[in-house]
């Protein structure tokens, strides 16, 4: 029986995509082989990867002058790859610190010998806020400004795109493909696939071409954006199955009305769940209202002694992976693209029943 999987990642994948992949698993494209078994150099898989990129470009509206890279190591590898590709040792880079993932990116940038300027630090609020527009300054010498539009752990999301002169670099792991996005506002976008794009291990990097050709001489080839772009992301063996699934998911989004329709569905799901939390006497969301995430919704119970019972009952009801991150506790419902509104309604019904029986 399929459950409603509220995991923050690896996350629930669209059922039609899983069923398509299952049907093709032992005989892909009439090859007599699984897509897991074919050569990444073969014409069939080269065409598959090209189709995945083309579909991604269409649904995101990626302009000319940007390269799309399919890389390994997830988003975390990009914490180091970005300074390696965009800076020289000793350069200045600016970061906004709004949660544990941006803090990890800051630490890695310092490991790469950068003068890191933390232009805004929301740690004093226990990462329940985002900086207000105009409340921070980015040094003119900064090679880029890095931020995390959505912090998966804390459920904090920027309500808008920072307006800065420096190239904007953003970790979109938790929100990519969840709604329309003006890619032209960014110098570089990167995202781990395991939220809205497929299985773990794959990272997608969308980089403006004028930022290529700057990699440090010591940058490993598989992390060098220029070399990977020249090789169509096949300098080494790419994560073939993940790329194949990304293509299927991009087509699924396209067939469902594109990112505009996806954004409407996601906003509706988040609105239902936040309303249920706000109208409750048992549940509380700790994030300031303007900074609430559409994708990751944390909540706590008024009596933490009820947490274990709540989770056990949810599991029995087919509502899985609701336990909050160990660093913040409580609950967290991640409602990425593949989570249908019926899953959110089922969660709300359970939360309502749980509160009523313990009032």
From TrEMBL:
Any one Gene Ontology cellular component term annotated for this protein:
cytoplasm
* Database matches in Pfam families: Aminotran_5
Modification N6-(pyridoxal phosphate)lysine, positions: 195
Q: What is the annotated localization of this protein?
A: Cytoplasm
Query: Would I find Transferase among this entry's keywords?
Result: yes
So where does L-glutamate get bound? 41
Which reaction(s) does its UniProt entry say it catalyses?
O-phospho-L-serine + 2-oxoglutarate = 3-phosphooxypyruvate + L-glutamate; 4-(phosphooxy)-L-threonine + 2-oxoglutarate = (R)-3-hydroxy-2-oxo-4-phosphooxybutanoate + L-glutamate
Task: Write the record's keywords in alphabetical order, separated by commas.
Answer: Amino-acid biosynthesis, Aminotransferase, Cytoplasm, Pyridoxal phosphate, Pyridoxine biosynthesis, Serine biosynthesis, Transferase
Q: Which GO terms describe its biological process?
A: L-serine biosynthetic process; pyridoxine biosynthetic process
Give the pathway: Amino-acid biosynthesis; L-serine biosynthesis; L-serine from 3-phospho-D-glycerate: step 2/3; Cofactor biosynthesis; pyridoxine 5'-phosphate biosynthesis; pyridoxine 5'-phosphate from D-erythrose 4-phosphate: step 3/5
Among the GO molecular function terms of this UniProt record, one is:
pyridoxal phosphate binding
Q: How is the cofactor bound?
A: Binds 1 pyridoxal phosphate per subunit.
EC number, UniProt record = 2.6.1.52
Q: Which residues bind pyridoxal 5'-phosphate?
A: 75-76, 101, 152, 171, 194, 236-237
- What name does UniProt use for this protein? Phosphoserine aminotransferase
Q: Cite the record's note on assembly.
A: Homodimer.
Listed InterPro entries? Aminotrans_V_dom, Aminotrans_V_PyrdxlP_BS, Pser_aminoTfrase, PyrdxlP-dep_Trfase, PyrdxlP-dep_Trfase_major, PyrdxlP-dep_Trfase_small
Q: Where is the Aminotransferase class V domain?
A: 3-347
* Protein family per UniProt: Belongs to the class-V pyridoxal-phosphate-dependent aminotransferase family. SerC subfamily.
General function of this protein: Catalyzes the reversible conversion of 3-phosphohydroxypyruvate to phosphoserine and of 3-hydroxy-2-oxo-4-phosphonooxybutanoate to phosphohydroxythreonine.
| UniProt entry tagged with the keyword Amino-acid biosynthesis | yes
Query: According to its UniProt record, which cofactors does this protein need?
Result: pyridoxal 5'-phosphate
- Mind giving the lineage of the organism this protein is from? Bacteria, Bacillati, Actinomycetota, Actinomycetes, Actinomycetales
């Amino acid at each position: 029986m399929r459950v409603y999987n509220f995991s923050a990642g690896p996350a629930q994948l669209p059922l039609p995509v899983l069923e398509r992949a299952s049907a093709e698993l032992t005989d892909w494209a009439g090859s007599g082989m699984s897509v897991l078994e074919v050569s990444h150099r073969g014409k069939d898989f080269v065409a598959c990867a090209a189709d995945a990129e083309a579909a991604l470009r269409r649904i995101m509206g990626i302009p000319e002058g940007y390269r799309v890279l399919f890389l390994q190591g997830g988003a975390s590898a990009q914490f180091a790859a970005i300074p390696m590709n965009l800076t020289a040792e000793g350069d200045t880079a600016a970061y906004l610190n709004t949660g544990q993932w941006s803090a990890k990116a800051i630490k890695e940038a310092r490991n790469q010998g950068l003068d890191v300027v933390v232009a805004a630090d929301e740690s004093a609020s226990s990462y329940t806020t985002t900086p207000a527009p105009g409340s921070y300054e980015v040094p003119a010498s900064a090679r880029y400004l890095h931020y995390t539009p959505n912090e998966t752990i804390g459920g904090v999301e920027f309500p808008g795109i920072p307006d800065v002169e420096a190239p904007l670099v953003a970790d979109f792991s938790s929100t990519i493909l969840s709604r329309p996005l003006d890619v032209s506002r960014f110098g570089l976008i990167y995202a781990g696939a395991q939220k809205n794009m497929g299985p773990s291990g794959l990272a997608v990097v969308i980089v403006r071409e004028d930022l290529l050709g700057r990699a440090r001489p010591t940058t490993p080839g598989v992390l060098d954006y220029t070399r990977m772009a020249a090789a169509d992301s096949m300098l080494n063996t790419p994560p073939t199955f993940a790329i194949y699934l990304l293509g299927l998911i991009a087509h699924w989004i396209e067939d469902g009305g594109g990112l505009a329709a996806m954004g409407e569905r996601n906003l509706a799901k988040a609105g239902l769940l936040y309303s249920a939390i706000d109208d409750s006497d048992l549940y509380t969301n700790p994030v300031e209202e303007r900074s609430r995430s559409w994708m990751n919704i944390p909540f706590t119970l008024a009596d933490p002694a009820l947490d274990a019972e709540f989770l056990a009952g949810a599991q029995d009801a087919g509502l899985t992976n609701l336990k909050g991150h160990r660093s913040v506790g409580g609950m967290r419902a991640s409602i990425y693209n593949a989570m249908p509104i019926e899953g959110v309604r089922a969660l709300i019904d359970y939360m309502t029943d749980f509160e009523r029986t313990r009032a």
